Amino acid sequence: MDYLLTETGRSDLGALLTVRSLYAFDFDGTLAKIVRDHHAARLARPIRFWLEELGKRAPTAVISGRSVGDLRSRVGTAASHLIGNHGSEGPHTRQEDMQQVRETSHGWLQWVNDRFRDELARSGVVVENKSYSLSFHYRTTDQRDKARALISRIVAELSPPPRIVLGKSVVNVMPPTASHKGTALLEYMRRLDCSAALYVGDDVTDEDVFALRDARILTVRIGKKKGSSARYFLKRQAEIAEVLRLLVEVGDQSIRTWSGCHEQGAAQPLQQPNE
Ligand SMILES: [Mg+2]
Questions:
Q1: CA dist., res. 164 & res. 161, Å (int)
Q2: How close is the Cα of 106 to the center of ligand 1, in Å?
Q3: Domains and CATH numbers, the chain
Q4: Pairing between β-strand 134-137 and β-strand 163-167 as defined by DSSP bridges
Q5: Separation of 213 CA from ligand 1 center, angstroms?
Q6: Is the pLDDT reported for residue 260 higher than 60?
Q7: To pair with 31 at 20 to 30 A between CA atoms, which of 67, 162, 167, 248?
Q8: What's the 222 CA to ligand 1 centre distance in angstroms?
Q9: Whose CA is closest to 62, among 98, 25, 35?
Q10: Which residues contact 104 (CB under 8 A, 6 or more apart)?
Q11: Does residue 259 have a pLDDT over 70?
Q12: pTM of the entire structure?
């Protein structure tokens, strides 16, 4: 894992600009700073600005654990594609598959509410219904060990057994048939006819993309971490603004250079009669 903002990293970013690439990002902890209140996460002004600028030049996507509706209220039109529920919610998934995933998730929610509503409330665990998955949040509780033990007990009893993805103070459970961030990114590359992609994320669910180890995808993790499959890392979340700015400005520069060469080339034939 190497630091992205070095000569090699910048040159790898630059290479993306020479082909049709998809620029995809996780939301919480990547485009938006992690905040104690899950509902307060938002895009900082420079990040929104550079993301919008990049989106005018190339396809961009946000692939998040949040629902598409939730993402839309935070990202708006700053990114061209919004993919929710860790990759399982979006126009790329088949209606029948989505329906099946929804039904499984809904069944789990009912069962959890019937049996554990009071116990969850006492432990300070908030269950978020994301239609296609459930998230057990324990960021705001003081009894973290107790909360985690309760969540483990519940999750172990879910039927069918879920795909479990641990996040920062959150346990996400997804129906086993749901697509993940890695499959979603590949599907979008195919749909948008992109031969390369950038993917930046900060959490365990993002390892589904990093672990593809697909040479066409430049993978970046927010924060260096042992055991991560990402190729590069950024030291801080705020550095994402610098990456977006670089992509926009370097991209524009190469277009200007190319236009310059083109004009020179066009001027040359005028000299030919003297040769
Ligand atoms: Mg994240």
A1: 9
A2: 24
A3: 2-93+179-253 (3.40.50.1000), 95-174 (3.30.70.1020)
A4: unpaired
A5: 19
A6: no
A7: 162
A8: 9
A9: 25
A10: 160, 175, 177
A11: no
A12: 0.80
